[in-house]
Amino acid sequence: MTKFDVLAIGGAHFLLVQSEHLLDLPSTILVPVLPRDDDPGLRGLTVDISIKGRPYRIAAHMPVTVETRRLQQAKPVHRLAPEEGQRVMDGLYAVLWGL
Predict the structure, then answer these.
(1) Could you report the per-residue pLDDT of 2-44, keeping only the tens digit for each?
(2) Contact in structure between 13 and 77 (CB atoms under 8 Å)
(3) 5-98, which class in CATH?
(4) In the chain, where the domains are located
(5) 84 with 3: CB under 8 angstroms?
(6) How far apart, in whole angstroms, are the C-alpha atoms of residue 23 and residue 53?
C-alpha cells in the first residue's frame, strides 16, 4: 500500500491519502471513491477519475480513518497520477484548514 492507491474494500473503493512514513500507525486515513453518478461534484473538493474505463469521483471532503490492520487484505485497483493526487490533497487541506 502506498499513498494514492485506490483500494477495493468490501465492494467499495477508497483512496489512501496518508503519507508512507505514517503507515506504521494503527490508523490510516482514506477518502471515498464513489461512482460519479452517485455523488455531486464540488469544485475544489472532488476529483473525477476513471478506473478501468468507469467514471468515479474522489470525495476529498469526506475523510475517514480505519484501523490499519483491516487494510492488510485490501487490493489496490488503481493508482492516481501525481497531479490527480495533488488535487485530492488540495481538497483535503481546504477542508482541514477551513475548519
Answers:
(1) 899 999 998 899 999 988 788 788 999 999 999 998 767 888 8
(2) yes
(3) mainly beta
(4) 5-98
(5) no
(6) 30
Contact 55, 35 (CB under 8 A): yes
User: Per residue, what are the HEC states of the chain?
Assistant: CCCCEEEEECCEEEEECCCHHHCCCCEEEEEEEEEHHHCCCCCCCEEEEEECCEEEEEECCCCEEEEHHHHCCCEEEEECCHHHHHHHHHHHHHHHHHC
| Residue 27 to residues 16, 44, 47, 89, Cα–Cα distance (Å) | 11, 26, 24, 18
- Give the residue carrying C-alpha cell 485530492: 88
Each residue of 80-99: pLDDT tens digit?
Answer: 999 999 999 999 999 888 85
